[in-house]
Specification:
Elements (H helix, E strand, L loop, with lengths): L1 H50 E8 L6 E2 L5 E13 L1 H7 L2 H14 L5 H7 L2 E2 L4 E2 L6 E7 L1 H9 L5 E10 L7 H4 L6 H5 L1 H4 L4 E8 L3 E7 L6 E4 L3 H17 L2 E9 L6 E6 L13 H4 L1 H9 L2 H12 L2 H4 L1 E2 L6 H11 L7 E4 L2 E4 L2 E4 L7 E4 H6 L3 H11 L1 H10 L26 H8 L6 E2 H12 L3 E3 L4 E5 L5 E4 L4 E4 L3 H10 L1 H5 L14 E9 L6 E10 L6 E10 L10 H15 L19 E3 L8 H11 L2 E5 L4 E6 L5 E3 L3 E7 L8 E2 L8 H10 L3 E5 L5 E7 L5 E2 L4 E8 L16
Parallel strand pairs: 2-10, 27-30, 32-35
Antiparallel strand pairs: 1-8, 2-3, 3-6, 3-7, 4-5, 8-9, 10-20, 11-12, 11-25, 13-18, 14-17, 15-16, 19-22, 20-21, 23-24, 24-25, 26-29, 28-30, 31-34, 33-35
């Protein structure tokens, strides 16, 4: 019985142990199921990550290139490689022959590496019982070219890998440095950083089992390329002109802008204090100026940083100054637009004008006497422009100042654009109105001034300046295109046409005659302005020129900012402006627009003119150009956009020949009625013809014994029904006609 009881007890004990064991297994299995369900994905990822060798190579994407309008490379990134050693792999393999081959080859390719140093990385440290460099990642050499990387890869060196990275370079070094920028911060590099930054790729090395190694590569996606409006050749000309001017007349800065006034495209933008984009932290003066080198070495880090920041800054968009007399035509345009003056208004200049409690001088102290609106601009007469501003009044003066874009950013695609400082409208008293009328006591940037002036000569549109025309992806597809953006209409076509042609007088016989180029029609306005406190005698000199004057394609703005030892009549922007225009004319092979002594003649001795291409141009511009060339014309059709011409462009014709212009109405063309030809008609005949056609008549001159010698708008131009046509009457000897009472008169 006892033996039986003991057997039962043993069975019960075994059953209990088995139960406990099974319970533990059940709990463990339950936990496994729980972790599998709740955290299975997480553990699976971790397991995969453990398979990935200690390597996770990041392959840097190439940054997008920067090109000029003709696809000249201005900035480019190329793939380079970092050479990486895996000491742990070498130690684990423990293959003396392969290790020696690896180290010997590396030392042959890279003389700066030392065999003993490489051996040190895999030498066992007796204190730790580990190799001296217990890592899978040791950089040996950085920035190796692709060709070297491929040669080394072909040798299949043990424990050597290559990490792809990218190297940014600027092949033209200093060219357009202030525009292009660097460090993904300055210039176009900063403004379009997101567009040019690519997506990095990755390379994984996977270990499967003890020996099997597989590779997984995810290619990098290169950044987008930006195509600029810059013209590499014109940029060179601008920088050359700036450099030579700075050498002749050392100044705080010298700058030049070349742009298309119709579209806002920037062809060139240059300033002094250039730097090498490949090494921007090293001023170029260190190589050429021993005195500067000594000064530089004595500078603190903070002083060096301040100096470099001022050098990297783009003067044309980030620095402001009082623009001076280049502002005067804007005041004239505003006054014409508001009808407070006409093109034939006259004013008196006695050499100075008393405004409130002070006398404001003209640069011609003897005075200009009675002076016309055109001559106020051509001779840069201060008393004349002050009187025009007084007629305009504070409210309208301020309104147009803002309309022309002063006191706000132009929106150019560059970082760091300044706004400038204007008088508040409520703070403009008689003196402030007077001084502001000739560009003093308010500040603006060079790009603001050039953009505003473009409005005067492009038909009255304030257009946004821009530097990038396209963004192109790695496949060559255009993903962004930028074109002309009209911010607003500021003045009428008629006012713009007058200002554009009137400013030719500045070059013909005014303050800008030094920039005249025989055979080429150029408009211009000059400026000389004092900066800051007047007792400091700091001056800024400017030249705003455009050509061809009848249909401007190029605007050139030159600035000498605060020259050392300024002397009136010595320093001038005329030299650099003319040089820049001459270079553009030669580079673009632009035909002369005016007859000169050198103009080709036919065998019979008659002067000839080479026909320009007028197709697509406005009759407003073309008829003036034809008059200047001494050619007659006939307009066929209604509208202001020329669709065809006879003779064709490039044809040589005699002066006095007739040109046929075929026109049509464009979407922007509001003209519906063609202006009749009343040239040579008597006053009564002209009034009758124009009235029958639905026009109002305005005349200049005497109506008796006179005939029409000029009309505006010209014959053939289409305008809105009921518009005014101004006729100029010139007395004719022997004429007996008696005029009727005039219907309308002007100043």
């Amino acid at each position: 019985m006892r033996r039986k009881a003991r057997g039962i007890k043993a069975k019960q004990k075994f059953a209990f142990i088995l139960f406990v064991f099974m319970a533990i297994l059940t709990v463990l299995f339950g936990r496994v199921v729980y972790w599998k369900v709740a955290h299975g994905a997480e553990f699976e990822t971790a397991a995969k990550n453990q398979q990935i060798n200690r390597y996770d190579l990041v392959n840097a994407a190439n940054r997008g290139s920067i090109l000029d309008r003709n696809e000249q490379v201005l900035a480019v990134s190329t793939a380079v490689y970092n050479v990486v050693l895996d000491p742990l792999q070498l130690a684990e393999e423990n293959d003396e022959k392969k290790t020696k081959e690896t180290f010997t080859t590396l030392c042959e390719y890279f003389p700066d590496l030392n065999y003993e140093d490489l051996q040190y990385h895999i030498t066992l440290n007796p204190e730790t019982n580990k190799i001296n460099t217990p890592t899978h990642w040791k950089y040996l050499v950085k920035g190796v070219e692709r060709s070297v990387k491929e040669e080394l890869e072909a040798k299949k060196l043990l424990g050597v890998y290559f990490e792809q990275t990218s190297k940014r370079s600027y092949p033209l070094k200093t060219l357009a440095c202030h525009l292009i920028g660097f460090n993904n911060t300055w210039g176009l590099e900063g403004y379009y950083n997101d567009e040019m930054t690519g997506t990095p790729g990755r390379s994984f090395i996977l270990y499967q089992g003890a020996d099997k190694v597989t590779y997984q590569d995810y290619e990098a996606q290169d950044g987008n390329t930006i195509v600029t409006t810059l013209d590499y050749t014109i940029q060179q000309y601008a920088e050359q002109a700036v450099k030579e001017t700075m050498e002749t007349w050392p100044s705080q800065n010298v700058a030049a802008i070349v742009m298309n006034p119709n579209t806002g495209e920037i062809y060139a933008m240059a300033a002094a204090d250039t730097f090498d984009l490949n090494d921007p932290d090293e001023p170029l003066k260190l190589e050429t100026d021993a005195t500067f080198r000594e000064t530089w070495e004595a500078m603190t880090d903070e002083e060096k940083s301040e100096y470099l920041n001022s050098t990297w800054k783009n003067f044309c968009v980030s620095d402001t100054y009082e623009p001076g007399s280049v502002y005067k035509p804007l005041v004239v345009a505003a006054a014409l637009e508001e009808g407070v003056i006409t093109q034939n208004s006259t004013f008196y200049c006695g050499g100075k004008l008393t405004v409130a409690d002070r006398d404001i001088n003209c640069h011609l102290h003897s005075g200009h006497g009675t002076i016309s609106v055109e001559e106020i601009m051509a001779q840069s007469c201060n008393p004349g422009i002050i009187q025009i501003a007084q007629k305009l009044g504070v409210e309208k003066f301020y309104k147009y100042q803002r309309e022309f874009g002063f006191g706000e950013k132009t929106g150019i695609d560059l970082p760091g654009e300044a706004v400038g400082i204007l008088h508040a409208e409520s703070a403009i008293g008689p003196v402030e109105l007077a001084t502001s009328s000739f560009g003093q006591t308010f500040n603006c940037t060079s790009i603001q001034m050039a953009t505003a002036f473009s409005t005067l000569i492009n038909g009255g549109n304030l257009v946004k300046p821009y530097l990038v025309s396209q963004i192109v992806d790695d496949d060559g597809s255009v993903i962004m295109e930028q074109s002309t953006e009209v911010v607003r209409k500021v003045i009428s076509q008629k006012t713009s046409d007058y200002i554009r042609t009137a400013l030719k007088a500045t070059v013909d016989h005014g303050t800008g005659k030094k920039i005249a180029i025989p055979g080429y029609s150029i408009g211009c306005k000059t400026g000389t302005s004092e900066q800051g406190a007047r007792d400091k005698k700091k001056w800024t000199l400017t030249h705003m020129a455009y050509f061809p004057a009848e249909n401007p394609q190029y605007l050139v703005f030159s600035v000498i900012h605060i020259p050392e030892g300024y002397a009136d009549g010595v320093q001038t922007t005329a030299t650099m402006t003319k040089q820049l225009m001459e270079n553009i004319i030669k580079y673009k092979n632009l035909e002369p627009t005016e007859a000169t002594e050198e103009t080709a003649t036919l065998n019979n001795g008659k002067t000839t003119v080479t026909m320009p291409d007028y197709v697509g141009s406005s009759t407003y511009h073309v008829t003036m150009d034809l008059d200047g060339k001494g050619l007659n014309y006939k307009v066929v059709g209604t509208g202001n956009t020329i669709t065809n011409q006879v003779p064709k462009s490039g044809t040589k014709v005699e002066v006095g020949s007739e040109v046929i212009l075929y026109v049509a109405k464009s979407e922007e063309d509001s003209g519906t009625v063609k202006v009749p030809d009343v040239m040579g008609k008597t006053y009564n005949e002209a009034v009758q013809i124009l009235s029958d056609a639905g026009f109002e008549v305005v005349f200049n001159g005497e109506t008796t014994n006179s005939v029409v010698s000029a009309q505006d708008p010209k014959y053939g131009v289409s305008v809105e029904d009921g518009s005014e046509v101004t006729i100029t009457l010139t007395k004719q000897e022997g004429s007996e006609e008696t005029a009727e009472e005039p219907k309308k008169t002007t100043e």
